[in-house]
Amino acid sequence: MYGGTIVAAIDLLVDRGVTSKQIKVVSAVAAPPALQKLSNKFPGLHVYTGIIDSEVDERGFIVPGLGDAGDRSFAT
């Protein structure tokens, strides 16, 4: 699943009354499928990323090497 961790985090905020336009996402790395998912699900969301890594595998992991960025960040 692309962008699963950030989508879950934003869903928590939206469930508490925060609008997409009020949220700013800052990430070190992002992949196009996740950015597209965020754009479709949260209109008006602002995303700032250090780099866009264009290659993901069939599981949505950034390759080579990073894997699931959310899992790496939160040791899940």
TrEMBL record:
InterPro entries, per the entry? PRTase_dom
Q: Where is the Phosphoribosyltransferase domain?
A: 3-76
- Could you identify this protein by its name? Phosphoribosyltransferase domain-containing protein
